[in-house]
Every structure is written in C-alpha cells, then in structure tokens.
Specification:
This protein is of the alpha/beta class and 242 residues long. The chain is built from seven helices and eight strands, in the order αβββαααβββαββαα. Strand 5 and strand 6 form a beta hairpin.
C-alpha cells in the first residue's frame, strides 16, 4: 500500500460517522455499502463494486465524514456512475471547501509542471494574452501542463486545472492538449486558475471558500464564458476520455 493509500484506524466517534455515511449511501443506492476512511493526499474518493459484498466499497478521505446531504447524493451518484458530470462538480466543490484538511507532504514541495507549449495549445501564449486583456499584467505565475496519468480506467470526473497559492503555480490537465479542444475553452480554464491569484480564498466561520461571490462575478466577466460552458456541456464525455 503506497504512501497515498492510507486507510485510517479511526477512533470510535469517526467510526460511528462512517457507519452513518454507509447507511445513507445504502439508502440511496439500494445495495450494500462499506466505507473505508483514508488520509490520502490525492485519491480522495474511489468506489468499486464488490461481488462478495453485493454492493459498493467506498474509499473516502476523512473530510467526507462531515458531508451534507447534497454531497452524499453526489457520492452515491459517483459510485454508481449516475449523473457523473454533476456529481464530479459537487465533489470537487466539497474538496475545495475542505482542502485545509488534506495532509501535507513535508518531503515534497510543489512539482514544476511540464513546459507550457503543448502539441496543440501553448499555455504561455494564452496566459500572456489573458493577463494583458483582463488583469493588466499583474498576475505573476508559472504555468504548464500537469502530469499525464496515462490511459487507465475511465475517469468519472476531471479537474481541469489547479493553482498552488504559495508557489504561484498553475497546472492545466493534459487532456486539454488535443486538437478537438477549442482554444477558447482552454483559455477559460486558464482564466479561472489565474483568478485564484487575483481573488484569494476567503475564510469565514472556520471554513475556506475558494470561489467567493467576487470570484464568481469576475469569472462571468470572461467574454467566452457562456460559449465555453456550453461546449463543456456538450463534450464532457470527450474530456473524460482524454
């Protein structure tokens, strides 16, 4: 079992929450459910069918023990493969709001991304154009393609990009470096990650919001936002196959 596959020996209170979560998922799915709680850094939610159980085995980060009803609905949909696009967005949003609970790796700082010039899209050109058009050149960050995971099992959700605040580092998912992906869609993803520097996270009542009302307002200011969202809605399966 690798460093990023740590199933926790959880205390009594957490075990009780895991059992409640399993019951909630069982009620939504109509099959047996076993919940294993992890302290992983990257693989935060997985689900598989277990013939011996006659149901699903969920491996979830301990943050999901505090999941609300909507997030539990998304976990059930994620496990069963239903409404995969909506479920992926809900789970990504929950993870963003609770990112401070993810264990840091003291031995590794943020890895540099792959060079920004891909086979089909040049992220540096896109970044520089957006910086001039929308931000007056004030966004200072490195940008590049993220690490390719190869062609394993089909994804059920995909995180298009990420921004590391301390390192001022933007990574874009390599699935976007394909001729079928329009430039305006890649630019929309890059613009979103640049906004994370312009509008830092907001902390309120012990929770961190990475997408505040001001963030969403500026996100809508991107001239191709509606066009890019419509393209994603039509082509989400294509993104998952990348």
């Amino acid at each position: 079992m690798g460093d990023d596959e740590r199933v926790l020996p959880i205390p009594t209170e957490a075990r009780a929450k895991a059992l409640v979560l399993a019951d909630e998922l069982r009620g939504r799915l109509g099959y047996g459910v076993r919940v294993l709680v992890t302290d992983n850094r990257s693989s935060l939610v997985t689900a598989r069918w277990d013939d011996r159980l006659g149901g699903y085995v969920f491996r979830i980060h301990h943050m999901f023990l505090e999941a609300d009803a909507g997030t539990i609905d998304a976990l059930a949909d994620f496990g069963s493969g239903r409404r995969k696009k909506v479920a992926g967005r809900v789970l990504d949003g929950f993870i963003d709001r609770h990112r401070d609970r993810i264990r840091k790796d003291p031995a590794a700082g943020p890895r540099a991304p792959a060079p920004p010039r891909g086979r089909h899209h040049d992220l540096q050109l896109i970044f520089d154009r957006l910086n001039a058009d929308y931000f007056g050149g004030r966004v200072v960050a490195r940008i590049g393609w993220g690490e390719s995971r190869g062609h394993g099992r089909r994804r059920r959700s995909i995180k298009m990009g990420s921004y590391v605040h301390d390192a001022r580092l933007i990574r874009i998912h390599p699935a976007l470096d394909r001729p079928q992906i329009p430039d305006y869609y890649v630019a929309w993803v890059v613009y979103h990650e640049m906004l994370h520097q312009v509008v830092p996270p907001v902390k309120s009542k012990g929770r961190t919001s990475f997408h505040s009302a001001e963030f969403r307002r500026l996100e809508r200011a991107f001239r191709d936002a509606a066009r890019a969202q419509a393209w994603e809605d039509r082509n989400f399966d294509l993104l998952l196959r990348g």
